[in-house]
Amino acid sequence: MSLSALISFSNPLSPAFHRSLALKSPNYSVSAAPVACLNVDVRAPVSKQNPSIHEKRSSEIIADDNKYIVGSYARTPVVLSSGKGCNLYDIEGREYLDLTSGIAVNALGHGDPDWVRAVTQQADVLTHVSNIFYSVPQVELAKRLVSGSFADRVFFCNSGTEANEAAIKFSRKFQRFSHPDEKDPPVGFVAFKNCFHGRTMGALALTSKENYRSPFEPVMPGVTFLEYGNTEAAVEFIRSGKIAAVFVEPIQGEGGVYSATKEFLQALRTACDDIGCLLVFDEVQCGLGRTGYLWAHEAYRVYPDIMTVAKPLAGGLPIGAVLVTEKVASSINFGDHGSTFAGNPLVCTAAIAVLDKIANPTFLAGVGEKGNYFKDLLVEKLGGNSHVKEIRGFGLIIGVELDVPASPLVDACQKAGLLILTAGKGNVVRIVPPLIISKEEVERAVEILAGCFPVLDD
């Protein structure tokens, strides 16, 4: 297979053309002018105690986890205790190069000094008041999100799945608002195969993998799954049904790192406009700088009515946000939705610190450059391997599709000091490192990954 056939770049525009999105507010500031976080290589100290005691301690922690925590996670047998930059350390002091970033959450790496300073200072002042009252950080974060996006208003929640739950409710409320005289306004939804939108009952209904849904059925009815990227089928179905909203990820992360095309997203936009349904972009994983654009859909110049974001927004603290146009917001009344913890001063202050850095055009350009460099190295080192079917990606969300399950490779990499994820049907290596990763760390990661590939032949 030729290298040109092996690589799937799906990036319609160079990040160099990215419009300036530095978000500024004259009234509220967490830190000085945003700059990219330096990746300081600070190694965790290794205790001088007997290593066997540490092994026992690690085993005891895992045993306690198995005893006291609901067994919903198939965890890697590593007890992590600290992190700095792109490095993580377990309780025995072993170092790992982190290409998972907490499943695309720790965009600024671990222990970013500006983030730590912002969180520490805010925690000393005010952490939570509920949404009964106003707070300055929540308003300032909303202003930044609006000024740097298509949106007119923001609703805050606590996670990606909560953001999608809110988007489901907002979509149905919008249709009732828009069709006040109809007994049965549009209530159906369109989602796409290989998609992932969350694990709560509404978001779960929009998630295509049957193994996620089947244990909890019946889930919310009225969802139709179409082929991702099949423009003709999508347009035909949307125009023929009573659809409240179309949910789509511009880049499917959990599904296997598949990117949409501009033509596909534009066709969805046009079809939704034709029948009056809403277009929802789920950018929980692919948004906020991971593609080298602040929002992934900006590369396609196609804009939604609603966008859901979460993972990296507060640098590891729980937050979600639903960005909406004024026409959607105008259909929402007091009491239609809410959350006790959402948008509290602490998490919003953390998010401001993250957003101010990532929105810097220089930072975003660097993400695009490092993403291209990462893919080039992967092709150079792995392109000739018989197990590699395709290397695809956009910025620093990269997938290496294999012809065999990836779990042996994940285990081998972990033992060699590299943390990676899987995606798709378990045969895709998903690479989502902190956005601050250096080129030297990229080179080290690819060397470890390539060195572990022989395990796939065993």
From TrEMBL:
Enzyme Commission number: 2.6.1.11
InterPro entries: AcOrn/SuccOrn_fam, Aminotrans_3, Aminotrans_3_PPA_site, Class-III_PLP-dep_AT, PyrdxlP-dep_Trfase, PyrdxlP-dep_Trfase_major, PyrdxlP-dep_Trfase_small
UniProt record, GO biological process: L-arginine biosynthetic process
Location within or outside the cell: Mitochondrion
UniProt keywords, alphabetically: Amino-acid biosynthesis, Aminotransferase, Arginine biosynthesis, Mitochondrion, Pyridoxal phosphate, Transferase, Transit peptide
Catalysed reactions, semicolon-separated: N(2)-acetyl-L-ornithine + 2-oxoglutarate = N-acetyl-L-glutamate 5-semialdehyde + L-glutamate
Cellular-component GO terms for this entry: mitochondrion
Pfam families xrefs: Aminotran_3
Cofactor: pyridoxal 5'-phosphate
Gene Ontology terms for molecular function: identical protein binding; N2-acetyl-L-ornithine:2-oxoglutarate 5-aminotransferase activity; pyridoxal phosphate binding
Pathway terms, separated by semicolons: Amino-acid biosynthesis; L-arginine biosynthesis; N(2)-acetyl-L-ornithine from L-glutamate: step 4/4
Similarity remark: Belongs to the class-III pyridoxal-phosphate-dependent aminotransferase family.
Official protein name in the record: acetylornithine transaminase
